Amino acid sequence: MTRSRVGTPGLLLRHTSTGITGSLLVALLVAIAVFATTVAPRALVTLGTDELQHRLGELSSLRDITGLGRIGLVGGLADPTAEELLGPTDHAIQQSASLLRPPLGELAGTPRWVARTAQQDAVLPEGAPAARVRLKLAVDLAWGDGIRIVSGDAPSAWAGSDDGTVDAPLDIAISQATGEAMGVTEGALLRYGALTLRVAGVYAPTDPQDAYWAHAPDLAEPSVSAPDGVVPTVTTSAYISPDSAPGLLNTFAAGALSAWIPIDASTITYGDAAEIATQTRTRTATNFTLPAAGELRFSSRFADAIDQTAARVVAASALLALALSGLLGVLLAVVTLGIGAIVERRRAALVLIGARGASGLQLRGAMALEGLIVALPAAILGAAAAVVLVPEPVDASAWVLPVLVAASVPLVFAVRAGPHDVRARRRDLRSRGGRVRVIAEALLVGAAALALFLLSRRGLAASASAVGIDPLLALTPVLLAAAVCALALRLYPLPLRLVLDRVRGGDSAVGLVGAARAVRAPVHGPTASFALVLGVTVVVFSSVLGTTLSVGVTRAATAEAGADIKVRAVEIAPDTLATIAGLDGVRAAAALTRIPGAQLDDDGGTSGVTLVLTDTAALHAMHPELPQLDARDGGRIPVAVSDDLPLIGDDARLGSAEVVVQHRRAPRSLPGVTRDWVLADSRFASELGREGIVADLLLIAVDDADAVDRIAASAERTVIDALSEQGRATVTVTTARGVLDDARSSPVIAGIEGALPIAAGAALLLTLLALALATLAAGAARSHLVGVLRVIGADRRQQRGILVWESAPVVIVSILVGVGLGLALPFVVTSAVDLSAFVGGDVAPSPVIDPLTVVLAVCAVLVTAVVAGATALALGRRLTPAVTLKMGER
Amino acid sequence: MSPHIRCTDLVRIFSAEGVEVQALQGLTLAIERGELTAIIGASGSGKSTLLSILSGLDVPTAGRAEVAGHDLLAMTARERTRYRRHTVGFVWQQTSRNLLPYLTAVENIATALSVSHTPRRTRRSRATELLELMDIANLADRRPAQMSGGQQQRVAIAVALANSPEVIFADEPTGELDEHNSQLVFDALRTVNVELGTTVLIVTHDQAVSAQVRRTLQIRDGRMSTEVHRSTRTDEHGNESTHAEEYAVLDRVGRLQLPEEYLRALALRDLVRLELEPDHVEVHPTALRKDTA
Ligand SMILES: Nc1ncnc2c1ncn2[C@@H]1O[C@H](COP(=O)(O)OP(=O)(O)OP(=O)(O)O)[C@@H](O)[C@H]1O
Ligand SMILES: [Mg+2]
């Protein structure tokens, strides 16, 4: 026997510890909700950091802060050394990096700089192959660090001067590739204006991948242009010894200085990104003054890349907010249901203690305290788990939501403890149309409309710098669901009443009892319906959005590639095309000839267009939205035009040829041409006066997606084989798959695509829980009903029928409303928000509904409902009428 | 001094969705301080409705009701709470409804004391005192499930007494009990009435109970109809006998309800003939003639 307690805290504990399972369930849900709301902003920041590092990693040397300008060389020094002459400039450039403050300063590496002379022709010695050499001399104090001399020696200091004695040859070092292109080795003498250059040594970069060579490519390899029948031109640069610079003051004064501050993006965090972008902009906004009237103008793609990434991350977090807030709504609804169940358990005690003189404050206070006891440890655990799992620093605002979630629990406890009525409540006699309810519903609908309006005016993202759960976005779907749910609950008794009136006259007891119960004593309260509607909404919304995004990304990638395989080359000859079209597995191949500067005339005027010639039958096979234009139309040449051209009459002239515009609903862009184009079949090339212009773009469609890589390789070989040596370097091959893989490698896209199915699954799970809780909560009433039914002799089938009536109408209505809302929400989102920034490409993706996914989602909810119902029925059957009827007494 | 409980023309109408039930239709009643009174009446006559109004759990639609100087229609929420806490106590018919099943007898009493902010140190002694008064001190640390129905009801009375109310209402407190236990519970209520001077109002169907009460009120259709006063007389041989006198309530406009048995015995119906005598009124049956109708 336990010793009785008489202290108030002890008594409260006694009350709280009864029926602990319900409290544990609520505690678990609170822990999950707090965990989710704590972890979400942190995960987003992590995702942002990943995305940032991914994007900046792709940029490689382009992210570095690069400066262009001129070097200041102090004149008038008597016999200056290289150090005296170049030291001040070097020092100033080093300062440009070391003065950068964190966080940018922490990413900045040691700056490098190269001063170059202006470009001049160098005359090759006798016996070298004929070539025109355009050469710059370069000086770099640290030039020896990244190279090794492969033959000869490092250049030695020059004793001459460019405004005096120029007799002695000036030593230079050239890269191996330059030597090969010019056909010279060490010891060769070149004439360079008034100077004579001597190739003292030939070097090779120790690490050709080093960022240095990306900034000074001319010092690693020459660029060679070799049109047919013309002497090739070699453009390159050569190092001189820094010690030779004092003699070349004039030459370098006419040249250019380039410097760069390497940026190491691997440690950048999303939290610092905005600050870093600002710092970068500040650095590049003003010229950087160097000693002796030198100066540098810095620029960087860094800041823009950060902004683009930020825009993408913000869009992603907005999308996640949409999906997750719905989820959170369901979670909170389920928590509320759980709390409702706990409070309902305490109801008898509350009523009794209330009747004995406890004030409303005492009762609510006691329940709030119980809520606190349940929620506080759970919330702390959930938050701690989140912080440990994703230890990302976030600002204080990230704590608002978790704290609100945790604080709402005691509040809901207190609210649900509500005013009591000692007398048994007869729900059927309570009027449904309370004024409070009408006002609440009006407010809800108003708030939903307002949120929708604000969202459509503002767009998806509040500001480019804010990451985290945006309250407006988080609220909109929940408010919409709540408003629609309230309306549905208002309307749904109407058809049921009709049914009730119908069955009243008939002799179907099942229908009568079922319909009467559904109308007068609904088992599932508004919270359960809300959870159900929102749950189904989230399931459907997530799956539609997931399909939309993945289709959008795929479409954008395909549009960017233009076809399964796209090959660019200086020339794609008809033979090459024929060979490739004949390759095994190629469905269609078309070579595009693009002729800019064509003119399309009609009565309205003249438009400058790009004329695109191709085999339109093959193109049509790849892009069915483009017409086949190979048959004359009334003697005229059929053409298609892009949809951004001003309305053009059917009959027009292209140059001197009469054409007829065939297809009005053409897309905006063609592969390789984004706007203002006219498409015609290449068979009419001569009539259009464009014969013999070579195609430079090849599109290939394949039969089997798995064969893309093999076919791409063969096509590339075929194209290359047909080209001259120089032309080969121009060949690039892109596959849609490759572009897609690139897009998918973005952490944000991968994150969203991964998160949406999880959201859908979690929503499904919560819907199940909501249904189970609601069904269990109705247990007492149901057992009583089953008891009565059995006493009056209803058979099992009739019992089941009545129980089906209990949840079927609500579940069916909730599913219908939820599916409707879930399907509508993506349209709202895509109309309010341009997702193209997110998926890439320039066509905003519209919602794609995959019927299979939706049907699967609905089936899952239905199965859940049936399982919950069957369980309830089984539980009800276990109780004998005697027990259940006695229970009903209370 | 005014009566301890006074109701005048009390009306309670339950209404919703077109259905209207008049549970009380102008009930008038007066009970003196320290009285032990029983209320009887057919099912649905409004007994429970009356009790829930008097114990401050329900509000009448019209009329006046006063208990221990509190006007039940004019109370604020705060006054109502204080009223429930300190002025009245109650016991319901369902034994399970009076006590919290997961608390022991002492804890149930302590909960009521905690509600009224009674200092903690006095709670245990107060609980023991009450249980001793109910003669069930040995049940202090048992939960309701470990007690008999009669024991539970006596604990319920102890809980009702916790905050020393002036009035105890009991709605069919013996309804679920056998004869022996009923007697024990009734005795407990009588003890409360006698020893503490608490006014006790019992609703009951139990003849054995009402037969032991000095004053029994009968409700019919939400109105007081008759009442019976019992008195014990001792004759010259020392034998005690109980005398019951039947009274009927005359309302303000002079309406009167005659007991069913009287009506049946003399076939009184439709029109009766009245005769005023010097100290009483006679009621005679009439043979109704066609032409006078
Ligand atoms: N909450 C309520 N809502 C609607 N009608 C009610 C409510 N409570 C009682 N009634 C009605 O008021 C009338 C009186 O009920 P009450 O419970 O007072 O009767 P009673 O005399 O206690 O009956 P019993 O002896 O069966 O307990 C009944 O017709 C009942 O249907
Ligand atoms: Mg009753």
Structure description:
The complex is a heterodimer of chains A (890) and B (293). Chain A has 890 residues and is α+β, with helices and mostly antiparallel strands. Chain A has three domains: 8-47 and 309-555 and 746-884, no CATH class; 62-308, no CATH class; 561-742, no CATH class. In chain A, β12 (288-290) and β13 form a beta hairpin. In chain A, α16 (526-561) packs antiparallel against α22 (747-777). By secondary structure, chain B is an alpha/beta fold. Chain B has a domain at 31-60 and 70-225: Rossmann fold (3-Layer(aba) Sandwich), CATH 3.40.50. In chain B, the strands form three sheets. In chain B, strands 6-7-8-3-9-10-11 form a seven-stranded mixed beta sheet, sandwiched between helices. A four-stranded antiparallel beta sheet of chain B has the order 2-1-4-5, covered by helices on one side. In chain B, β1 and β2 form a beta hairpin. In chain B, α6 (149-161) runs parallel beside α7. The complex binds adenosine-5'-triphosphate and magnesium ion. Adenosine-5'-triphosphate (ATP) sits between chains B (14, 21, 23, 41, 43-49) and A (423, 426, 429). Adenosine-5'-triphosphate sits between chains B (14, 21, 23, 41, 43-49) and A (423, 426, 429).
